[in-house]
Amino acid sequence: MFYSSDEPCPLPYNPLKAIIAPRPIGWISTLDENGAVNLAPYSFFNAVNSDPGVLMFSSETLKDTATNAKTSGEFVFSLATVELQQAMNASSQGVASDVDEYELAGLEKAACRHVAAPRVAASPASLECKTIQTQGLTALDGTPMDVHIVFGQIVGVHIADDFLTKEGLFDTAKAQPLARCGYRDYAAVNTVFSLTRPDEL
To answer: What is the DSSP string of 149-167?
Structure first.
């Protein structure tokens, strides 16, 4: 089948998020200007540079997380895993800005070194970030979109020792990160394999 994006979608649900899948989940914690904690998962999230390390997440409408990352100039990413799936899901609720999603989800906070926002203590890995840029988008017809992209440079890395191999590698399969698919679907990484680029043989 084919349909143009300016036509009504002929399917019962928009397939975009199911086609662009799986996507890593940005489980982002921030502090507002009064010091209230916010924690929320974002499926429009990824790493965009390695040296220096840079992460991005995109918020459809200006929610608390993007607002806080802009005003405070920082945020923290914690890895969402199979073991933490229910807590991650609980933190996705649309609640008032003064509600602490850590408490809502039954999560313990852990202090960071370079940023004030806390990280998820039970997560195998967390990345402290300083906001370096925010960006809005404009549609083809020139209309501003209610989309808010936040870029953060990684300034601190936390890894639980149990998830490091003897060779000093992060054990992704052991951590079992969650990924977002389409609709209400998720996936988990529990098997990995290696490929060598032809120019490295």
So the answer is: EEEEEEEEEEE-GGGB-TT
Q: What is the pTM of this model?
A: 0.95
Q: Give me the residue spans of the domains in the chain.
A: 16-200
Report which DSSP code applies to 94: -
Which residues does 116 contact at the CB level (< 8 Å), separation at least 6? 31, 72, 74
**Integer CA distances (angstroms), 161 to 5, 119, 155, 167, in order:** 47, 16, 19, 12
Q: Identify whether the C-beta of residue 81 lies closer than 8 Å to the C-beta of residue 176.
A: yes
H helices of 26-185, in order, are 64-72, 85-90, 101-105, 172-175
Report the SS3 class of residue 32.
Answer: coil
Class at the top of the CATH hierarchy for domain 16-200: mainly beta
How far is residue 184's CA from residue 201's CA, in Å, rounded to a whole number? 41
CA distance 99 to 47: 28
- Summarised one tens digit per residue, pLDDT across range 104-159 is 999 999 999 999 999 999 999 999 999 999 999 999 999 999 999 999 999 999 99
Residue position matching structure tokens 């995109």:
58
52 upstream amide cis, omega within 30 of 0:
yes
